[in-house]
């Protein structure tokens, strides 16, 4: 089966679209955005940031709340992986449709 990757742009409050993230689903792209957030020391201490992703070629905005935290790498990690990694999670808040574009 061919790759079903879709591209999503990170949309700022001003309407400017900055970065592009790809994924098979909007959630997969949102997790990539969340992993770039400033990580807290633990998941319980992580602040939640809201962001919007627009699927390229559409006027549909996916609204997510995301958070990131530092965690110890797994015991069976590959040699190139650092001892501390950034983990992330997201929660979908909803969708909106843009009038312009």
Features:
5 strands; single chain; globular; 101 residues; 47% strand; 10% helix; five-stranded antiparallel β-sheet; mainly beta
Kindly report how far apart the N and C termini lie: 32 Å
Please state how the strands of the largest beta sheet are arranged side by side.
Answer: 2-1-3-4-5
Rg calc: 15 Å
Number of domains: 1
Strand content: over 45%
> For the residues shown, what is the average pLDDT?
93
Shape: globular
Describe the largest sheet.
5 strands, antiparallel
- Derived structural class: mainly beta
Task: Give a count of the beta strands, DSSP E runs of length 2 or more.
Answer: 5
Unreliable segments of 5+ consecutive residues: none
Report the oligomer.
single chain
| Number of H/I helices | 1
The helix fraction, in percent, is under 10%
SSE topology string: EEHEEE
């Amino acid at each position: 089966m061919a790759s079903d990757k879709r591209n999503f742009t990170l949309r700022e409050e001003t309407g400017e679209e900055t970065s592009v993230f790809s994924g098979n689903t909007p959630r997969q792209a949102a997790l990539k955005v969340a992993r770039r957030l400033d990580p807290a020391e633990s998941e319980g201490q992580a602040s939640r940031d809201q962001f919007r992703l627009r699927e390229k070629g559409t006027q549909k905005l996916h609204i997510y709340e995301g958070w990131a935290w530092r965690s110890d790498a797994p015991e069976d990690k590959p040699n190139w992986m650092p001892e501390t990694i950034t983990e992330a999670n997201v929660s979908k808040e909803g969708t909106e449709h843009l009038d312009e574009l």
